[in-house]
Amino acid sequence: MTAPRFLMIDQAPTPVAPFSHAVETDGWLFVTGQMPTWPDDDAAPLPQGIAAQTQRVMDNLILVLEGSGYALADVVQVRAYLTDFQRDYAVMNETYRRYFPEGRLPARTCIGVTGLARDALVEIDLIARRAHDPSVQMGQGG
C-alpha cells in the first residue's frame, strides 16, 4: 500500500473549508465534493438554477480529476447532494448524464439534504480508479 497523496489543484476552486481537493492512494482517487463556485473568482455569485450549477460542479470535478492525472472515464462512483430533491432531481440528472458516454455510467447515490455551503443547490463528490493495465497479469485464485 502506498502512502496517500493529499492533492490541492491550482486550477480548481479554492475549498470552502479545510480539506484537500482529492486524496490518492493505490490507484484510487477520492475527490472532495465540489460546489458550483468559479475557479477564478471564489466570491462570484453562484450560477442560477440547477442545470447551470450542476454543469459548474461537473466542470470543477473535471478540473480536479485532470489536475490529479485522472479523467471522467476513470470514475467508478458518484454521490450527488441536492437541497431541493423533488424540484431538481430530473434536471440535475439530465445535465449530469451529458458528461458520461452511453454504457459507462458510474455507480451513483443521490441524496436530498437540508443545506449546502454557499446556499448551493447541488454538490457532487466522486471516487475514481486508474484503468487496469492489461499488460500486468493478475494472479489466479487458488
UniProtKB/TrEMBL annotation:
Entry superkingdom: Bacteria
Cited Pfam families: Ribonuc_L-PSP
SUPFAM superfamilies: YjgF-like (SSF55298)
InterPro entries linked: RutC-like_sf (IPR035959), YjgF/YER057c/UK114 (IPR006175)
Ranges that cross the membrane: none
Name of the molecule in the record: RidA family protein
Species the sequence originates in: Robbsia betulipollinis
Organismal lineage: Bacteria, Pseudomonadati, Pseudomonadota, Betaproteobacteria, Burkholderiales
